[in-house]
Design a protein that fits this description.
Blueprint lengths: L5 H4 L18 H12 L25 H12 L4 E4 L3 E6 L10 H6 L2 E7 L8 H8 L4 E7 L22 E6 L5 H12 L16 H10 L1
Helix pairs in contact: 2-3
InterPro entries: AN11006-like
């Protein structure tokens, strides 16, 4: 007599009419929280060492069309991108070691930018390009650098005076000696396009004056 396999004696599992479990079966509110967790990253800082690991789960956008449609804004509209050093809002990057964004639709969603500005060298863009790139942005961070401490003034920053309608402006880095202008420029860029702007009274300031203002103010 043949011995029956125990699996032959077990009843067949009931057929389920439920669809297989997957991300789209999760309520939309929960899915949005998942997208935020997987696709939003801390704001870029030039003082943070780059990581070889991808900071976001970009493969999620290739899952299917609906997830792509729901999740894409979390990656591009909710993160701060590094502006291109010469093309500005064109070809921005999420991190220096990642590829630049080239898709026109994705670029249109990016409204938070971080730009490094060299105060002691010629800028590779003009005031018109800056105004067109950043007017109306959600957030703009300008990181100011120069090789010599208090070596130059704010002349290069005058190219930014035409920008308007930015909701949040951060100007950091080498600002010693012209803090009054920095505050005026920040408020100017955050003002509405048609709002009257009080002209800043530019004056010639020596290195000694800048040092005194920076440390004695």
């Amino acid at each position: 007599m043949e011995t029956s396999n125990i699996t032959d004696l077990m009843p067949s599992p009931p057929m389920s009419s439920e669809p297989p479990a997957g991300l789209l079966t999760v309520p939309l509110e929960i899915r949005l929280q998942i997208y935020s967790y997987l696709l939003e990253v801390p704001e870029f800082s030039p003082y943070t060492l780059p990581s070889k690991k991808a900071p976001v789960a970009g493969a999620l956008l290739r899952t299917n069309r609906q997830i792509n449609w729901e999740a894409t804004p979390f990656l591009y509209a909710h993160n701060t991108f590094i502006a291109h050093p010469s093309l500005l809002a064109t070809f921005p990057r999420l991190r220096p070691n990642l590829r630049p964004v080239s898709d026109p639709y994705a670029i249109s969603l990016i409204h938070r930018f971080h730009l490094t500005v060299h105060l002691d060298s010629d800028l590779p863009y003009d005031a018109k390009a800056l105004t067109e790139s950043f007017t109306g942005a959600e957030e703009l961070t300008l990181h100011l650098v120069q090789f010599g401490f208090c070596g130059v003034g704010y002349a290069n920053l005058r190219q930014f005076e035409g920008i308007r309608g930015v909701k949040r402006v951060i100007i950091e880095g080498s600002t010693t000696g012209f803090e009054d202008y920095i505050e005026w420029l920040r408020k100017t860029m955050m003002s509405e396009p048609d709002a009257p702007i009080e002209e800043f009274k530019h004056e010639h300031v020596t290195l000694v004056d800048r040092l005194a203002r920076g440390y004695l103010a």
